[in-house]
Design a protein that fits this description.
This protein is of the alpha/beta class. It has 4 helices and 8 strands, in the order E-H-E-H-E-E-H-E-E-E-E-H. Helix 1 packs across helix 4. The protein is globular, with a radius of gyration of 18 Å.
């Protein structure tokens, strides 16, 4: 059995700032010398290739998996074709070894997470009171009704320090 990678989640409602925070954290933590992977959960259908491309034609012809490989990257698309969505642990197990996996979405997974909150969010109902796995909050407004650490949503360095310490990685400065 392989060791499970260090993971930390970014959760929140639609338009709460999750993607912006996740991308800033990746940039910041990579600049500190760590190898980061991400998993993003989508609540909608998505496509990573365009109609008319060879890989698109392969998938639409019925291929179960299609790998696209070049000198700069590769992607493997797996068509579910009616099978259930893979579980979180199954997706996590497919990633190559890294220092930390940041998880965007997956609100209901029992993983340590920071809750992103913005006044412009589609829903502003706090997640933290009902989710014991939320260990901090990042918001663009004052948050008073919690004992959890609260960060400004734009305090990327402070949030990165908190995450690195939480998962047991040395808090390093930018290299």
């Amino acid at each position: 059995m392989t060791d499970r990678p260090r993971i930390f989640g970014i959760s929140g409602w639609k338009n709460s700032g999750k993607t912006g925070l996740t991308t800033r954290l990746v940039d910041t933590i990579v600049a500190r010398g760590y190898r980061i992977s991400t998993i993003k959960h989508a609540h909608h259908d998505f496509d990573i290739d365009r109609a008319g491309t060879d890989s698109y034609r392969h998938r639409h012809a019925g291929a179960h998996e299609v790998a696209i490989v070049s000198g700069t990257r590769y992607a493997i698309m797996h068509e579910l074709r009616g099978d259930p969505e893979p579980g979180f642990e199954d997706v996590l197990a497919r990633l190559a070894p890294c220092d930390l996996v940041l998880i965007e979405g997956y609100k209901r997974e029992p993983i340590p997470k920071i809750e992103a909150r913005r006044l412009d969010a589609a829903n502003r109902t706090p997640l933290a009171p009902q989710d014991p796995h939320i260990v901090a909050i990042a918001a663009d407004h004052p948050v008073m009704d919690t004992l959890l650490p609260v960060f400004d949503l734009d305090d990327t360095d402070g949030i990165a320090d908190f995450i690195l310490a939480s998962v047991g990685l040395p808090v390093t400065s930018k290299r």
